[in-house]
Amino acid sequence: MKYYRFLLPAFLLLSIIGRAQTKLTSFSPGAIWPDDKGVHINAHGGGILYNDGVYYWFGEHKIAGDAGNRAMVGVHCYSSKDLYNWKDEGISLSVSPDTTNDIAKGCVLERPKVVYNKKTKKYVMWFHLELLGKGYSAARAGVAVSDKVIGPYKFIKSYRPNPGQTPFYPALTPEGDKINCVNPTHETDKFFCRDLPGGQMARDMTVFVDDDGKAYHVFSSEENYTLDLAELTPDYTGHTGKFIRIYIGHQTEAPALFKRNGIYYMIGSGCTGWAPNAARWFSAKSIWGPWTYHGNPCQGPDSQITYGGQSTHVLPVAGKRDAFIFIADKWAPKDAIDGRYLWLPISFKGDDIEINWVDNWNLDVFKK
Ligand code: GAL
User: Fold this and answer.
1) What is the spatial distance between Cα 347 and Cα 368, in angstroms, rounded to a whole number?
2) I need a labelling partner for 197 at 20 to 30 A (CA). Which of 29, 41, 68, 236 fits?
3) What are the residues facing 93 on neighbouring strands?
4) Which atom of ligand 1 is nearest to the CA of 271?
5) CA-CA distance, 43 to 41, in Å (whole number)?
6) Is the whole-model pTM more than 0.85?
7) What is the tens place of the pLDDT at every residue in 128-144?
8) Where are the beta strands (DSSP E) in 118-199?
9) How many CB atoms lie within 10 A of CB 281?
């Protein structure tokens, strides 16, 4: 009888040892990635914010089955100091039980990205929103804010960006390269012109904050044919009306931006739904372009399908030079919660980039 009193301490000790044993020291792209509770991380289509020495990973919380392709819960947040081990911080933005709310439970709420605004001291979350029961026809950008990094975030509004605005063109842009709704040049111009009064469609997206504190929203527009890169207002919660169109008519999705040595880089994908396709990358000396297309950065077997994944974010590793991690989702549309994460190091050949598959790796691949 008396050894019952040892059961609890023994159990506690074993669970501590169990946890210590599961401490991760490397990345295994595509594998189940347990959080601090031993549960596979649930933050799909995500992005990562580095804040005060801690990384915060925000992504779509998915449920099992194909119902998981819709937002039944909201945006999930995890935190980490080492990028391998992630603590579950709970739901940062919850969907609403009110079916008339823009972010009603069962809507499509994808690719959330959080940035910090130094002036307002607020955390701002942008995401792609599709209204409940309307398929993918709404094509809106949604925004929510919080005073605390992990939330709770308060939903503010959703809309189609830049109504009534024509693109910004750098000086000396030939007239023939500018949008002309009377005499359109590209097939996709008709979608741009159709949506001019009400605002441009906004689907797959990211947000990028430049060194000068200006933030940009990059999104698939014009029925996914063209990418728009648009300036956000100083408080990051709206669009200023200044934007450019990138790689017109070529269906780029899943944009992820980063900057190195004064050059802007963007990695994206083609447009084949949940099925993987070849990644593509671009670079520019100015955020306003011109953006040069460079083809597929991935090398080796399965590089034509991005190793089964689709880009979502590029993470600069704090305190290391030239250390950028390509982050992709390996979708599991039939059982959405089982989606996996592919984290791979980006290598530089001069100003060019390359991505190679690695089964298992750690941050030592980057020089100090
Ligand atoms: C993908 C897109 C995902 C999701 C999916 C739906 O192309 O990148 O975020 O929208 O289509 O089919």
Assistant:
1) 14
2) 236
3) 75
4) 7
5) 6
6) yes
7) 999 999 999 999 999 99
8) 122-130, 140-146, 154-159
9) 23
20 confidence band (pLDDT: 50, 70, 90): very low
The DSSP bridge pattern shows strands 54-60 and 44-51 to be antiparallel
CA of 136 to the centre of ligand 1 (A): 10
Answer whether 274 contacts ligand 1 (Cβ < 6 A): yes
Angle in degrees, CA 358, 361, 364, rounded to 5: 130
For residue 273 and ligand 1, the question of a CB distance below 6 A is answered with yes
Q: How far is the CA of 226 from the centre of ligand 1 (A)?
A: 15
* Terminal alpha carbon distance of the chain: 57
Quick one: average pLDDT of 94-120? 98
Ligand 1 close to Cβ of residue 306 (< 6 A) = no
Q: Residue with the nearest Cα to atom 12 of ligand 1?
A: 273
Q: What per-residue confidence (pLDDT) applies to 171? A: 87
pLDDT in tens, 253-290: 999 999 999 999 999 999 999 999 999 999 999 999 99
Ligand 1 atom closest to the Cα of residue 69 is 6
For residue 79, how far is its CA from the centre of ligand 1 (angstroms)? 25
Q: Is the CB of 329 under 6 A from ligand 1?
A: no
- For the chain, give the mean pLDDT: 95
Task: Provide long-range contacts, Cβ within 8 A and 24+ apart, for 36-40.
Answer: 36/85, 36/86, 36/87, 36/88, 37/88, 39/88, 40/337, 40/338
Residue of the nearest CA to atom 8 in ligand 1?
254
In whole angstroms, what is the distance from residue 195 CA to residue 172 CA?
26
**What are the helix (H) ranges across the chain?**
4-21, 189-195
